[in-house]
Design brief:
Length: 510
């Protein structure tokens, strides 16, 4: 994939993910307006986090272990037989896992929310048993995405969240009054299934399900199995950070988990759009370069990807911290979600936002290791950051309440990314850390000065209806972006200059 094609593909995926995330915010705003913050929403978010975290772990592990191996066979005669075998094997494992999770749901929820008792604990078990079977569909959805990415179809996998969000929005609006929080639970379970079903026709068009044989004993199956387990453990450990916050949050005041959840949804927006779009395109490229033993190009791709991550995420991180209150107010504050909920959610968002940059870079480094078929090193670092997260949460929970849980998560990412950069350098050799440090300090200066400019505009954002708030917030964000890019240009940030150069050439040809 050429650099121009990579940027084009990343652009398309970014637009689709952006629209998907906007639709996701419509979903969250609907939930907030209908149900607000209460012990019921705390319970729902805790129960929904179990299949959600397992999906993210399986999704990451499946695609990471599947893409490098399947990429060697997808255009060969045995490619479809191999893919069909993987679908059947994974489907069987996920089905068995879903059944076990439903049976042992009381134990699962006791581990997730040890602070819950009585009716709240019983309700969490009921909710979990309804949503946990969704793991089967979510896991197969991840496998479908892996197949389609190998086939260079980035469009369909980017659509999976749309039907999921739609069914939740409709259910909350139309059924929420009559059936309460349980309407949301059943809609969530249905949304899980739709994420798989929407991709199924696109996968079928490649002839995978029409394969005449099933390659049960193909050597690639074993290779995938060897790669899958450590990636799954490592991915699950990374996603465990969200669950850890809920475990500690179950011991805090009522509504703490709801505040954390609503803040995480906003914090996850750039992660789910820019970072995911960049990784979606970069990872297959890194796999191909390493397979061809083009180490110079491989390391250059890692450096450029990391540099772009810094240039994109540093200003967003600063901007989200400064604008936390008006952002939360615009998205959530209506009906059952009042000004107190806005203030408390913004408090958590400030601390979560601090981890945007290191979490994105860690994900990129994970993909770099996976591209080299080293799945154990990321697993070890996942254990390290999770252990740090637990310790930091315990230390910060008392002085900062649920804000301490968000801060502990962010600080663990900083410690993890520094150690991971050193390990990656030992693995593949120097990949331009000195150049990245140059980008980091320049981007930091530009981002902090932008933050000061935006901070002075905060009084302008107070009051008004939704449209007025949106226009004012949009204008302040545009002002901040202008200040940042002017400063970045003056500081001659390398990655920004490259992007402008590609844009000028494209416009010239147009």
């Amino acid at each position: 994939m050429t650099g121009r094609t990579m940027i084009k593909s990343a652009g398309m995926v970014t637009v689709l993910l952006f629209l998907s995330r906007l639709f996701g915010f419509a979903r969250e705003a609907t939930i907030a307006a209908r149900y607000g913050t209460s012990w019921l929403t705390d319970t729902y978010f805790a129960a929904a986090s179990v299949p959600g975290i397992l999906f993210l772990a399986f999704n990451d592990a499946i695609k990471t272990a599947f893409i490098p191996v399947y990429g060697d066979y997808h255009d060969k005669e045995e490619g479809n037989s191999l893919a069909l075998a993987v679908f059947l094997l994974l489907g069987g494992l996920l089905l068995a896992g879903s059944v076990l999770l439903v049976i042992f749901a009381p134990l699962v929820m006791r581990l997730v929310v040890p602070g819950y008792t009585g009716a709240q604990y019983e309700l969490s078990v009921t909710m979990a048993r309804i949503m946990l079977p969704g793991l089967l569909f979510l896991g197969l959805s991840g496998l479908c995405s892996g197949v389609l990415h190998i086939k260079k179809n980035f469009f369909v996998p980017s659509l999976t969240a749309f039907p999921n969000n739609l069914v939740i929005i409709v259910s909350a609006l139309l059924l929420g009054v009559r059936y309460g929080i349980m309407a949301l639970v059943w809609a969530t379970a249905a949304g899980f299934a739709l994420q798989f079903l929407i991709q199924l026709p696109a996968v079928a068009r490649h002839g995978i399900f029409a394969a005449r044989t099933i390659a049960w004993h193909h050597p690639a199956i074993k290779r995938m199995g060897v790669l899958l387990l450590p990636v799954l453990i490592g991915s699950a450990t990374v996603e465990l950070k969200t669950l850890i916050d809920k475990v500690f949050g179950s011991f805090l005041a009522e509504q703490s988990i709801s505040y954390l959840n609503y803040a995480v949804k906003i914090y996850s927006l750039p992660n789910g759009i820019l970072i995911l779009a960049l990784l979606t395109v970069l990872y297959p490229t890194m796999v191909e370069l390493y397979y061809q033993r083009k180490m110079k190009e491989f390391k250059e791709t890692v450096r450029q990807g990391t540099g772009l991550m810094i240039v994109l995420m540093f200003p967003i991180m600063v901007g989200m911290m400064v604008l936390s209150t008006p952002i939360v107010r615009l998205i959530y504050e209506r009906a059952a979600f009042d000004t107190t909920a806005t203030h408390n959610t913004a408090y958590a968002l400030i601390f979560y936002s601090l981890g945007l940059l290191p979490s994105g870079v860690m994900l990129l480094f994970n993909r770099a290791f996976y591209a080299t078929k080293d799945t154990k090193t990321p697993m070890y670092f996942s254990f390290l950051t999770t252990l740090l997260n637990v310790v930091l949460n315990w230390l910060l929970m008392k002085p900062l309440a649920y804000g301490g849980l968000a801060l502990g998560t962010s600080l663990s990412f900083y410690l993890g990314v520094i150690a991971m950069a050193a390990a990656l350098r030992r693995k593949v050799g120097p990949f331009g850390l000195s150049l990245l440090l140059d980008t980091l300090w320049k981007t930091g200066v530009a981002s902090l000065l932008m933050g000061v400019a935006v901070w002075f505009a905060l009084p302008y954002l107070a009051g008004g209806g939704f449209l007025l708030q949106a226009l004012r917030l949009g204008s302040v964000i545009a002002l901040g972006a202008l200040v940042y890019f002017v400063l970045a240009y003056l500081l001659k940030i390398r990655e920004l200059d490259l992007a402008f150069s590609l844009l000028r050439r494209r416009l010239g040809r147009g």
